[in-house]
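Example record for the data management plan.
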Amino acid sequence: MLRPRPVEQSCVVPYRMTETGMEFALITSRNTGRWIVPKGTVEPNMTPAASAAKEALEEAGLLGETGTEPLGEYFYSKFGRVYRVEIYPLLVTRELDDWDEKRFRKREWVGAADALFRITETLVQDAIRLLAETDGHIASPPR
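Corresponding structural encoding:
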C-alpha cells in the first residue's frame, strides 16, 4: 500500500546573544497555549529555511539571519497525516513590537534551561542544546 508523502514543514529556533548569554524566543501555540517555536508548511517556490523565516515574522514578529543547513528534523502525525519538520537556526536581528499574529500568541525570551523546560519536542530541544553549546556558531551540524 502506498502512503502519502509527509507534509513538508519547517521551523526556526530564534536566538540572540545578550550580555548575560544566549536567549531563545518562544511563542505560544494558537490552540493550546503551550510553548513552541515558529513553524509552518513550506511555501511553494520557497526554500524550507526561507519559509521558516516567514513563519518567524508572521507568528513571532522576528527578523534575522536563517541558517542554510537544518539542525535536524522530526516527524509528527495530525489529522491522519504525517508531517516532516526541518529545524533551522534564526539569529534574530530585529524584533517587531507589532506583528500579524500578536493577538493570538505570546512571545517571550528565555535562557536555554528555561527553553528546554518549556519545549516538549525532543528534537527541537536537541537543536536548542546544539545552539547553546556552540554559541550559535554552527559550521555543519551533525547528522
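Summary line stored alongside the record: The chain has a mean pLDDT of 92.
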